[in-house]
Amino acid sequence: MTQMSTWPRFGVIPLGEEIATFEKYEEVQRAVDVLADAQFPVQKVSIIGTDLRMVERVTGRMTFGRAAFSGALSGMWFGLMIGLLWLLLGAQDFSPVLLGVSVGAVFGGLFGVAAHAMSGGKRDFTSVSQVVATRYGLRCEHDVAARCRQVLGERGFRLPTAYQPPVVDLTEPPRYGERITPAPPSGPVADENAG
């Protein structure tokens, strides 16, 4: 079960070092589980999803019958809640509950059909939307980052190595777009003010 926390501040990306990246949420979740099993202070770890995409999965066609059925179910739930409230306020029997469910189903079905008719055929399908990340980063606070790398490395997780700048061959002219730092002159420097 995932618990969302607003600590230390809601809406702020946690500071720290990115230890590893994963393509699937289950992989980064397994890494955090490994850290927890090793008695690592997991409260200093964050999972950050990046490259977010909105995915809408089409679940079927929307027909008038389906719109009526869906509306009737929603109306039944609403009617049930109203009937139970009425029952709590002093009704002598369950007739308010049955009446609420029945009336809710009828009006919900009518509203479902009316809403589908008003769409004008522009959306004749049902779908479920969700936001998914294409990459998940495991970020750790600076003071425990080395231990985090050690624990994950010992348990077989492939971690990125430290960044190594590319070696530049100074015997050839630089390629287009390649920046090199000019070396100081190696011979004696002539005085520009001398005669």
Give a nutshell description of this structure.
With 195 residues, the chain is an alpha+beta fold.
What report would you give on this structure?
- The protein has 195 residues and is α+β, with helices and mostly antiparallel strands.
- Helices cover 37% and strands 20% of the residues.
- The chain contains four helices and three strands; from the N terminus they run βαβααβα.
- It has helices spanning 25-37, 64-88, 95-118, 145-154; strands at 17-22, 45-61, 125-140.
- Strands 1-3-2 form a three-stranded antiparallel beta sheet.
- 14% of the residues are buried.
- The model has no long low-confidence stretch (mean pLDDT 84).
Task: Describe this protein with a few key phrases.
3-stranded antiparallel beta sheet; 3 strands; 4 helices; alpha+beta; 195 residues; elongated
Q: What's the arrangement of secondary structure elements?
A:
Blueprint: E1 17-22, H1 25-37, E2 45-61, H2 64-88, H3 95-118, E3 125-140, H4 145-154
Antiparallel strand pairs: 1-3, 2-3
Helix pairs in contact: 2-3
Largest sheet: 3 strands, antiparallel
The strands making up the biggest β-sheet line up spatially as: 1-3-2
Shape estimate: elongated
Oligomeric state of the chains?
A: single chain
Strand content: 15-25%
